[in-house]
Amino acid sequence: MQIDIVTIIPAVFDRVFDESVLGTAVKSGLITVNVHNLREYGEGKHRTLDDTPFGGGPGMLFKPAPLISCLTDLRNSGAPAPVIGLTPRGHVFNQAMAKELAAFDRLILVCGRYEGFDERIEDEFDLELSIGDYVLTGGEIPAMAIVDSVARMIPGTVGSSDSVICDSFYDGLLDHPQYTRPADYEGYQVPDVLLEGNHSLIEQYRTFNSILATAVLRPDMLAETELSAGDKRLFASQLKTLNN
Ligand code: ADE
Questions:
Q1: How far apart are CA 237 and CA 235, in angstroms?
Q2: Active site residue 152
Q3: Which end of the chain is more exposed for a tag (fewer CB within 10 A), N or C?
């Protein structure tokens, strides 16, 4: 997958795609990330990109011409790609969207700044995404978050595809609790079932605790998740055992 990022501060992306899992994905050619400096499209001697809003109001807006000509150049070079504007007014990004975006050969991400975009730029976007209901100083951190989560959905990026399937949110449930050595840490013990090697019981423990964690911590998520008949039965019977 090729990802093109349009930003006025390309330097913030300097190391993000060089290290760890993303770095390996880039080195192995699974993803290519191109960071484009919008300033190169700025107008006049000062390479201006922004101006005050008509009708007054605080802050500055991205002017249409520089961004639209940058997007025209990007569209004219390389594979077709959805253009995604990063703004707090976009759809709130989630794991299902990460999975959908991972199916594209190319994505173009546009990082907002200032008070936002002139409305005529918004028409250039195929999709607007937000990473949550809070306002950041720009779309660069959202772009990093989205590239990271989309990249991990591309087969081969994360070492074991099982670890993606077991992610919190992957199947609409939070992850179950996990433990590593020692089995007893200052009296705080790992549940026996995880030490005994009975894989079917371990699976049941994990399913039950995934559903329980989601019910307690994210009831909104559980309300949207269709549990299988078997999982519902398992949850009800384990809950009964717990209450007795
Ligand atoms: N730009 C500023 N805040 C943002 C957010 N929450 N998501 C995406 N882009 C943003």
A1: 6
A2: yes
A3: C
A 10 A CB-CB count for 101 gives 24
8 A C-beta contact, residue 43 and residue 59: no
The phi and psi torsions of 148 (rounded to 5 degrees) equal -60, -50
Which backbone phi and psi does 32 adopt, to 5 degrees?
A: -125, 125
Any residues with CB less than 8 A from the CB of 146 and at least 6 apart, and which? 84, 86, 93, 98, 101, 109, 129, 131
Tell me, in angstroms, the distance from the centre of ligand 1 to residue 126's CA. Answer: 17
CA of 150 to the centre of ligand 1 (A): 17
Q: Is 231 a catalytic residue?
A: no
- Nearest protein Cα to ligand 1, atom 8: 130
Q: How far is the CA of 137 from the centre of ligand 1 (A)?
A: 8
pLDDT per position as a tens digit, 10-51: 999 999 999 999 999 999 999 999 999 999 999 999 999 999
158 touches 164 (CB < 8 A)? yes
80 in catalytic set: no
pLDDT tens by residue, 216-236: 999 999 999 999 999 999 999
Is residue 88 part of the annotated active site? The answer reads yes
